[in-house]
């Protein structure tokens, strides 16, 4: 039941040992100097939070969450809700959208595939790796200008969310970001 309160959109205070900047300095730098600062809350989304194992003094969780979520803070807050405190003992990232665990390779697997001359089979095209980035199709004239290092003025904004976009030429070939 306690975990139910941590699913969906939640408010979270990042840990003081994080890379977030406050007054031009990283929080972890300030924390190491013993400087205490107010850390602003942030909204994050926990899409999935499952208890996968329960021991006498430990528990294991499986979490699917939005960008910007601090798992250490989530665990800290769950511990506070339980009334015993908690910390992360082990953290394993199994995916970063669109890259998911079954498709990932270990470094040893990459080396072996490279030695066998088969690495290309498993590599993603650059634009496939950026599927979460907005895309834009441009004209043949714009494509020629861009390929020659010239500016291309766009009359449309393909996305309100992204400053960077995947650019495709007039025949659908990815040409850059």
From TrEMBL:
GO biological process: mRNA pseudouridine synthesis; tRNA modification
UniProt KW keywords: Isomerase, tRNA processing
Pfam families (UniProt xref): TruB-C_2, TruB_C_2, TruB_N
InterPro entries hit by this protein: PsdUridine_synth_cat_dom_sf (IPR020103), PsdUridine_synth_N (IPR002501), tRNA_psdUridine_synth_TruB (IPR014780), tRNA_sdUridine_synth_fam1_C (IPR015240), TruB_C (IPR032819)
Ranges where the Pseudouridine synthase II N-terminal domain occurs: 2-71
tRNA pseudouridylate synthase B C-terminal domain segment(s): 72-130
All copies of domain tRNA pseudouridine synthase II TruB subfamily 1 C-terminal, residue ranges: 135-177
Protein's UniProt keywords contain Isomerase: yes
The protein's Enzyme Commission number: 5.4.99.25
GO molecular function annotations of the record: RNA binding; tRNA pseudouridine(55) synthase activity
Record-stated family: Belongs to the pseudouridine synthase TruB family.
This protein's name: tRNA pseudouridine(55) synthase
Organism name: Cyprideis torosa
């Amino acid at each position: 039941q306690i975990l139910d309160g941590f699913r969906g959109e939640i408010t979270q205070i990042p840990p003081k040992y994080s890379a977030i900047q406050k007054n031009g300095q990283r929080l972890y730098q300030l924390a190491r100097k013993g400087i205490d600062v107010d850390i602003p809350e942030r909204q994050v989304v926990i899409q999935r939070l499952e208890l996968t194992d329960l021991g006498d003094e430990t528990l294991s969780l499986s979490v699917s969450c939005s960008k910007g979520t601090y798992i250490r803070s989530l665990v800290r807050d769950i511990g506070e809700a339980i009334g015993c405190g908690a910390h992360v003992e082990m953290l394993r990232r199994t995916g970063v959208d669109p890259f998911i665990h079954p498709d990932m390779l270990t470094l040893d697997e990459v080396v072996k595939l490279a030695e066998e001359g088969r690495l290309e089979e498993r590599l993603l095209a650059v634009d496939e790796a950026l599927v979460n980035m907005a895309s834009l199709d441009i004209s043949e004239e714009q494509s020629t200008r861009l390929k020659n290092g010239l500016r291309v003025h766009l009359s449309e904004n393909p996305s309100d969310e992204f400053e960077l976009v995947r650019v495709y030429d007039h025949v659908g070939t990815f040409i850059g970001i």
